[in-house]
Amino acid sequence: MYRDRVEECMGAASRSGNLEEVRQAARAHSYDDYLAATLAPRSVAADFMILAAYFGEIARVPREVSETGLGAIRLQWWRDAIGGEHESGHPVADAMKDMIERRGLDRDRIFAPIDAAQALLHPEPFESDAAFAEMLRGMDGAHFGLRGFLLGQTDGNQRETLEALGVSLALIRHCAALPVFFAKGRLPVSRRQLPSDALDVHEGDIDAAVLARLADGLVRIADHQWREARGRAKSLDAVSRQAAATFALAGPYLKALQRVGRDPVRELAELPPLSRVLTLAWTAATGRM
Description:
Layout: H1 2-11, H2 19-29, H3 31-38, H4 42-64, H5 68-83, H6 91-103, H7 107-119, H8 129-150, H9 156-183, H10 208-233, H11 238-243, H12 250-257, H13 273-286
Helix pairs in contact: 1-4, 2-3, 2-4, 3-4, 4-6, 4-7, 4-8, 5-6, 5-7, 7-8, 8-9, 9-10, 9-12, 10-12
């Protein structure tokens, strides 16, 4: 059923390059958003799929690359491919480039995930809470905003709430990925969030117990923000609920992060694929998160 739905919606935007490859990229690198695209309204489903593939491709760069310079080169390639005059030959980049022109998308918002990924390449913590929050806004905050734009959402309060929900989900997803960054010797948190006995990351000797306290503290912040965002979600109209569909997974991911016995330094927080499908299908049918 889901494959048929995907093929139908992707066929609606056949101008955007090889969309089967786009679909595969979305499924491989941003499965939650891939599922949300299959359940989106037909008028935007193909473009939601392109966004899922694009955000997934960008987010995986700092998670896969160990060297800051190499990651910066890959991200600059994406910036040039999206912003250049000619097609790059990459199906996702060319589909995004086509969608920017078709839909009149804000290029600053399109480049936001690249800026966020760039900030995650460095071993040092973020200098301020504001810089850390800006990184989160460039992830799901920007993603939700773009979905809202594609759906025709123009209400300022609705768009502000969409961004808040996206930031909440981004923080939870970030907490789930911390073991990947820790393994690469990075501390992708605000400097103020560091425990007082945290060691200098430049020395390359980060104590596991310190990292565990750091991760636990960030999960507590994520829990607080999620509760606030959940309250704000009640004010969303039907259009914005479609844009914020993946926020329905924030609570289940948070529970996985808080599971007793989980090692926050080495163990990723994941959800079974079937539970994600059922959660998003229920949200699409009921509008509840």
